[in-house]
Amino acid sequence: MLLLLLLLLLLLQLLLLLLLLLLLLLLLLLLLLLLLLLLLLLLLVLLLLVLLPPPPPPPPPPPPPPPPPPPRLLLLLLLLLPLLLLLLPLLLLLLLLLPLLLLLLLLLLLLLLLLLLLLLLLLLLLLLLLLLQLLLLLLLLLLLLLLLLLLQLHHHHQHHHHHHHHHSQ
């Protein structure tokens, strides 16, 4: 009866061990994914940092060789002016948004790092649990062995009944 119980416990222990190992594997995968994400984010931040200095203004288009009459040039300038006025706020907005984007990315990076730390802690905890499980397993196995040994001894040991003869005087 006790033997059966011990075997059952052993089985349970093994199952638990397996479960823990699976969990560990899962965590490691998650960790890898996070690291990849972190790397990607870092690259993005670097890219943004490179982009952050204002880009050089595009070279002005070369003027056409034949000299156009002045009214036409004036007209062209008048046409280009609203376009320039439209582009300017956009450029400014971009320049304003870039640091903001960078900040956002950095925050995300920080968050990811925290998550990574948490995962590592969890991993450590799992490893400890695994170790505990293994110890428990060993203990159970020892107990089982001991029990088997005791049973063997019990079987081998025949009860010898010694008859004490009382010597009458």
From TrEMBL:
SUPFAM superfamilies hit by this protein: Formin homology 2 domain (FH2 domain)
Presence of the UniProt keyword Transmembrane in the record: yes
Keywords, sorted A to Z: Membrane, Transmembrane, Transmembrane helix
Source organism superkingdom: Eukaryota
Keyword Transmembrane listed: yes
Record-annotated membrane-spanning stretches: 6-26, 33-53, 73-95, 102-124, 130-151
Protein name as it appears in the record: ABC transmembrane type-1 domain-containing protein
